[in-house]
Amino acid sequence: MSGKPPAIFLMGPTAAGKTDLAIELTKVLPCELISVDSALVYRGLDIGSAKPSKEILAAYPHRLIDIRDPAESYSAAQFRADALEAMADITARGKIPLLVGGTMLYYKALIEGLADMPAADAAVRAELEAQAEALGLAELHRQLAEVDPESAARIHPNDPQRLIRALEVYRVSGESMTAHRQRQFAESSGADAGAGGHLPYTVASLAIAPADRHILHKRIALRFSQMLEQGFVDEVRSLRARSDLHAGLPSIRAVGYRQVWDYLDGKLTENEMRERGIIATRQLAKRQFTWLRGWPDVHWLDSLACDNLSRTLKYLGAVSILS
Fold first, then answer.
1. What dotted CATH number matches 122-184?
2. Which residue, 73, 64, 119, is CA-closest to 250?
3. Starting from the edge strand earliest in sequence, which strands make up the sheet with 31-35, in order?
């Protein structure tokens, strides 16, 4: 084992059972939990984000949950800074940081750092948003493919936030987002984490998911229906009652929330909202699997196995995370 302190990443698609396994691990290991989820950072986004209950959070605290108002933005760079601070505090007290969640961009930012991108330009962004409204996202994706094919291949054609940001970077700086990242990686290779280089931890990467993808799809559909039964629509209705929230915010664009918002706007019927919410969640899971397939040295667990705790402990011992 290297001289670096240990850390555990527990990744996987939505509805795979990450939180349950993380809690089981904290019962037998000196771990403290850090949430890696772009929706859980927001206060008031509880039901639709599958946020652990208040009782669970009281018994098993998670860092980086409920740290932002939904009117605010929260970037991967902000996550990286917050996570590194939390990990350092946990490590200083002799505990192991256990990072659990499915926002793969956050994990990547933590491991690799982030390129220094140009600041947002309100005028350019407004122009791109107007183009998206008038011409559609497919046109923006086509434009991005011309100037930054690598980013176009990585960004889903229906992801307005990331499409607009990638085009904004190019229009503001004259360089593609890919070029910025490649230069940053070259400059920071071998640097410490504070400079955006390698993470100063010995990391064990775990991923949990049902071996049968159809089972995950059934879980996603069941969970979305349960969310609706638990009052998801009323939760979004309360958010809509706020004058400072709108459909363009990152919090409201979260999977599930944007479909219920459209339903309350009268753009979708209840059945359409349910169907599109389930489809969007499946698409999210597919993107998460894509990330994970390229993740180095990841140890897979089957959600349906009855011995995942013992399998995890055996793996952590084998990679010298446990002393």
1. 1.10.20.140
2. 73
3. 62-63, 31-35, 96-100, 6-11, 202-209, 298-302
The Cα–Cα gap between 97 and 4 comes to: 13
203: left (phi over 0), alpha (psi -120 to 50) or beta: beta
Condensed to tens digits (0 to 9), the pLDDT of residues 291-320 reads: 999 999 999 999 999 999 999 999 999 988
Tell me the β-bridge partners of 301: 208
Give bridge partners of residue 31 from the DSSP assignment. Answer: 96
Which fold is adopted by the domain 6-116+192-212+296-318? Rossmann fold (3.40.50)
Helices (H) and strands (E) in the chain, counts: 14, 6
> CA-to-CA distance for 88 and 204, rounded, in angstroms?
17
Please state, in angstroms and rounded to a whole number, the distance separating the CA atoms of residues 29 and 31: 5
Q: Supply the pTM of this predicted model.
A: 0.81
Please tell me the class of the 214-285 domain: mainly alpha
